[in-house]
Amino acid sequence: MCGIIGYIGKEDSLPILIKGLKALEYRGYDSAGVVVLVDNKFEISKSVGQVKELEKLLKNKKSLNSHIGIGHTRWATHGAPSKSNSHPHYDCLNRVFVVHNGIIENYKELKRYLKKNGHKFKSETDTEIIPHLIESFLKKGKDFETALFYTLELIKGTYALAVIDVNNPEILYAAKLSSPLVIGVGNNENFLASDSSALIGRTKNVIYLNDGEIAKISKKNISIYNLKKKKIPLEIVSLEWNLEQAQKGDFPHFMLKEIFEGPEVVRSTYQGRINTKDGSVKLGGLEKVFDKLKKVKRILILACGTSYYAGLVGEYLFEEIAKIPTEVHFASEFRYRDKPFEKGTVVIAISQSGETADTLAALQKAKDNRLMTLGIVNTVGSTISRETIAGVYNHAGPEIGVASTKAFLSQITVLILMTMYLSTDKKLLKIISKELEKIPEKIEKILKQSKKIEKLAEKYKNYENFLFLGRRYNYPVALEGALKLKEVSYIHSEGYCAGEMKHGPIAMISPDFPTMAIVPQNGISKKMFSNLEEIKARKGPIFAIATEGDKEISSLANDVFFIPKTIELLEPLLTIIPLQLFAYYIGIKRGYDVDKPRNLAKSVTVE
Ligand code: AGP
Q: Which residues, 6 or more positions from 445, have their beta carbon under 8 angstroms from its beta carbon?
């Protein structure tokens, strides 16, 4: 999962490439590099670490004022993070330069063939075979474009590529197969990027490349071809996100900014979609499949990570409110599972980025089995939104922090809306819609007490283990809370449904192993109390998330954070907030970069 960027135009490309790479850094940040062309000469710079290291390197170099260049920020797959393994990669003639996001599966045999034919490799990467393959066809007298097309025919796997030819500095080439790639259409300049967040502030007009497409981009023109060299008409769409949305504003980190966007995100997810007078819901993106949806026999939710946990809340909602049997599957398991499908099964793929490879592959499996496929996606125009026949956009705005926070809230809100869309219990729908409208305010009330969480994080920051417990709708919240703490503080934290604790996890309980208990007042809280009794009896510290006015919890828990009351099915929209803040503050207090946690990346575009 890397970020690639390209520019051709009237301005100096270097500052534009660096700025773009910074916006894409959440995709991978273990090394970076750029190459620019000036007067048929190339200037390449690479460094290990975040883009700011590359920027330091370039600071000492005088500006070349080059009008064409490509860049890359890496998340290593083949070859450890190092200068030689960072991109761009190039051929023996120093003529062809390539940056790549994806994996070339047949690179070993191609590398053996190229080595036998005298090519010298400088890296351990799969990517480096591409410039050498192009070179091998050039040496056979093919023109550059033919050499590029032949190379694309040969390589197997996934790729988003940006390619430049020193002998042809007026053209930027791009190609896509599975990994995301978008062209930014400018005035007398054009851009390439792994996703549109890198283009915000430069252009609002973009072209999303489809699988198997190759783009030829000059300062003034853009042409797109398929692998058969047939010209493809351009489809320019307008971006809805603005620069401010993609910047930190007054917050020290994107993660905290995005947690504090919670109220606005829930509001913008349901706004214009619910009618609180009668609780009816309008989801334009599902209208064309509404009749079929009404006859749905079973719902299969496919997702990964945080999106999977949102799906688990969806399972409770669809089964208990819409009375539709529902299963949630880890996409990475589902794609290799030999599962019988019953007629009337509808698949919902949930993804913030819309580019997660496992979810895409699971989706393809569902399509191969002729199942109706819907998407709940945040990134407009992303592959999953285009590979599903209908769906609902989250409208949560760009999520930059690698640890997903506001997208989780928006995904649950969309699942609540879809449940209401498929339910007939008018009385209940009215109650839900009225209560849902109060949620943003209740989240604001929680966020106003963030300092309390910060203080408690100071108390708990040195524990190396944490257990998160919840029941029913708050079980997925326990899983997500544990994931957040893992992601940004690297603490071993496990989420469990509280009833499961006595079947094993209770063995871990000790004064050194605190429990985060999600125990709002609802029909199941008494059961949670007995679980907490079991932990207290074994001197396990307890931090409880409870409902304002709950008089009993303080006698059981060492620390309590109170949240406003709401109906059980909406509780995850409130109980998750203190857990997101807790993970954030502990990550900060342990001195970690919470926006770019180690070993992670925002969208996992390889298997
Ligand atoms: C969550 O904080 C992580 N970034 C990760 O688990 C993420 O949820 C997962 O990779 C799925 O991503 P998606 O929603 O973009 O498909």
A: 564
Q: What atom of ligand 1 comes closest to residue 602's alpha carbon? A: 4
Give the nearest ligand 1 atom to 379 CA.
15
pLDDT given at position 323:
96
Cα(341)–Cα(324) distance, integer angstroms: 15
Residue type, 487: E
Q: How far apart are CA 69 and CA 162, in angstroms?
A: 9
Query: Is the Cβ atom of 403 under 6 angstroms away from ligand 1?
Result: yes
Model pLDDT, residue 27: 81
- Say how far apart CA 444 and CA 574 lie, in whole Å: 10
CB 439 within 8 A of CB 570: yes
DSSP-derived pairing of the beta strands 236-238 and 205-208: antiparallel
Q: Which two tokens stand for residue 101?
A: 């996001």
- pLDDT tens for each residue of 563-592: 999 999 999 999 999 999 999 999 999 999
For residues 194, 75, 247, 188, the Cα torsion angle rounded to the nearest 10 degrees is -30
**Mean pLDDT within 100-106:** 90
Q: Please write the tens of the pLDDT for every residue from 465-501.
A: 999 999 999 999 999 999 999 999 999 999 999 999 9
CA-based torsion, 517, 523, 524, 528: positive or negative = positive
